[in-house]
Structures are given as structure tokens and as C-alpha cells.
């Protein structure tokens, strides 16, 4: 493409579109039709220039022009309760379902790491002595010790709110920091599994692993699943930076980033449920089997939600992204 010739041939159309946009609401019916036609043609011009003869200054001008025209043509759309319902029954579960090839391996490997750390600490007294003094370890692991009283140390409502805030922050960090080539996400995961492994190791060495699991499983199943989903999504986002596939890196990151934002909102709701369980069920006087059953029921409900609603929405083409009408136009890419 000869860029100078192309610009000369179409500059008048771009100037005319800019003129119509500046007139705002003072357009006749014929001028509105002309604006729509010029908007469509200019979007095509922008696509051709970007793919054949990219020029930063011209591309910036046409991008701004197309964005202004698109806003004028489509108008401002207000969010409604219908959007919230669609997000909960399709968008969020579809995004979780589509990222399952990332968060399921993350969950398996992380759980194995926590178990390995727990075994190492539980079978090596010298490692336990490096963690704390013997008297401190006995205080933590004894009946009524710190591991047990932790869940009832504050009023249930405030404790649930604190837990939800902390876990939501951890999940958000996994989602946001994934773009930094996955490294921060791996570190956050390691710290979480290290804390879990230390608890497993110390309580098992005291012969109270069953008590520890009875305290962790009611809320921990759903809580850790949410963290694994966030971490898997963050890792997927980081890998997109490394290998965007057939799409441009900008387009791929935009799509994955928008999906990650939606995931953050959805996971905040999931972690709210786990926080409520941790605040009200874990320290309750219910039998251990009943508390664990509640945790298993919550976990199965979430997985059913993801695989039934999410799987159906994903097969219908839902990417967990914005609607096509709400996204910027994307250039076609070579196969």
C-alpha cells in the first residue's frame, strides 16, 4: 500500500466524519446516515492501515476518530440487573470453566506441595524446632491451643469480614500480578501452601491432624478452590504475555484482562461464602462431620455451578468477556 496515495484518497472522508461528530446532536436524518456510513468506512481504513502500512500518528488519529464515531452511533449503555444476572449465570461460570485447564493443575500441584511440606515438617523434629521453641509448639497444637482458638478469637461477623477481605486481596493479587510473567502468582501460591503445610506438619506431629482437618476443611475447600482459580487465571494471563497465540499480544491481553476483572468480581462472591462458613460454621459447636459436610456441599455446589452453567455458556460461545458490541473492534489475524 502507498500510504501517501491512500491518505490523499480518503482524507476528505475523515475530515467530513470529524465535522459531523463536532456538530453533535444537530444533524439531519440524511447526515446521521452519512455519519454511520463514514464511521464504517473509516473503521475499515484503520484496519487496513494497521495491517498493511502502520503509521503511529495516522493510526492514533483514526483510532480516536473511530472511537468517537462509535460512541456517537452506539450511544451510552447503562448497566442493568439483566447484566448482573447474565454475569452470574453465564459470564463468570463460563470464564472459570474455560480456564479449568489452568486452575485444576494448579490446584493439584499446590495441594501436593502443601502435603509434602506437611510431611517434611511432621517427620523432622529439627525442622519443627527451627519454626518455634518446643513450648510454643505445644501451646499452638494442644487442645484449646492457638490453632483451635484462632477461629473463635473474634466475633463471627467481624471475623468473617476480615477473612473475606484478606482472601479477596490474595485472589485479586493473583489476577492482577499474573501479567508480570507469572512469577508473583507462583510466590503467592507458595506462601499459601507453606502456611497450610506448616499447620498440617505441626498438628500431625502432635497427633491432632484430624482436629486440624476438621477445622480447615469446612471453609478451606471452597476458599482454596477460589484461590486456585485466581492463581490459574493469573498464570494464564502471564502466559498470554509470553505466547499470545494467533492474536496480537494487545488483543489477547485485552481479552484475558477483561475476563480476569470479571473473575475478580465473581471470586469475591465465592470468597464471601467461604468467609461466612469460616466465621460461623468452623468455630460452631456442630459435630466435625456436620461441619465438613457443609464444606463439601459448598464445594460441590460451586463445581456444579461451573461445570453445568459454565460449561453450557462456554459451549454456546461465551468467553467470559464483554459482549461484542461493547468491545473495541479487533483486527483479523492470519491463521
Topology record:
Layout lengths: L2 H20 L6 H24 L3 H19 L6 H18 L1 H23 L2 H7 L2 H8 L4 H4 L6 H22 L5 H23 L3 H34 L6 H33 L6 H28 L20
Task: Walk me through this protein's architecture.
The protein has 335 residues and is mostly helical. Helix content is 79%, strand content 0%. It has 13 helices and no strands. It has helices at 3-22, 29-52, 56-74, 81-98, 100-122, 125-131, 134-141, 146-149, 156-177, 183-205, 209-242, 249-281, 288-315. The longest helix has 34 residues, at 209-242. It is elongated, with a radius of gyration of 27 Å. The two termini are 22 Å apart.
Q: How many helices does DSSP assign?
A: 13
Low-confidence stretches: 322-335
Which of globular, elongated, flat, extended, rod-shaped describes the shape? Answer: elongated
**How much of the sequence is in beta strands?**
under 5%
Fraction of helical residues: over 70%
Which H/E pattern describes the elements? HHHHHHHHHHHHH
- Please compute the radius of gyration using only Cα atoms: 27 Å
What is the β-strand count? Answer: 0
Largest sheet: none
Helix vs. strand class: mainly alpha
Give the terminus-to-terminus CA distance.
22 Å
Q: If you average the pLDDT, what whole number results?
A: 84
